[in-house]
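This week, think about what follows.
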Amino acid sequence: MLHRLALLIAVLLVATPATAVAATGKPVVVDTIAVGLNPRTAAFTPDYRFAYASNAGSNTVSVIDVRRRAVVATIPVGSFPYGVAFDRRGRFAYIANRDSDNVSVIDTEDRKVVKTIPVGDAPRLAAATPDGREVWVSSTASNAVTVIGTRTQSVIATIPVGTAPRGISFAPGGRVAYVANSDSDNVSVVDAEARKVTATIPVGDEPRGILVTPDNRTVYVTNTIGGTVSVIDARRNAVTATITVGKNPRGLALHAGDRILYVTNSGSGTLNTVDTRTNKIVGEVALGADPRYTASGPGKRYILVANTGSASISIVTLDC
């Protein structure tokens, strides 16, 4: 078993999307990386050489060398760091600090904070537009999304959405954004150019994570209290299916080929895999304590999962 895991890790690190092995729907944890206290999210740099994990309990960001699978730097940021996003080139990282109501801008070459940007109340998750020109931050207690321009590193817009926004995901091309509003149990569909809500979609109980598929046909939403995933038809702006998963689902990611969806369950300490053609669960694996949000690796061949209660990052892929 250990030899098989070692071989699998090697394949993940060197394979290209075209040469990666075919995979089943059974998830497997191939490694675990110790980071700071209470990590909430992780994100890869655009070149996938490094990953940044936000450590809410230690007010730091861990910089992970992806090939070595080890922390190579720890950067102090604001209070209770949460969301992580990068500009297009990966020169700067943007860290949403929930309790200090600001965003720390990290120079990724010098690995230090070079600017602090005040935003709305209780900023949580962050997402960069596909062109990397903007970073959107969910200001949960302000019921709004704060838009930061990466050229000026300043707030350029504030967009009112639903109550207590959390996850943000952009459709391909970046003209439409979807925002999960945890306290109003709905998703705001936002025209990213006009900066206004054009539709509101009711979903399950306390939506937090959200993901748009690359073909722009489907939006997945984790309903944390409901223990479900809502499947939204993006053309109709309507829920077409509800999938029961583990307890308190949070993070979402797709595996290469987009036929398998990963769902992390913070309340049950597990990850489910779902067949996107049938909306049926096809696998489950135990993770660390309180797994939260995910980051997709190169070619979507594996993901990182932040385990809040274990101060660690799990590397998860599908069994071959």
The CA atoms of residues 60 and 101 lie 15 Å apart. The domain at 31-160 is CATH 2.130.10.10 (Methylamine Dehydrogenase; Chain H). The mean pLDDT is 94.
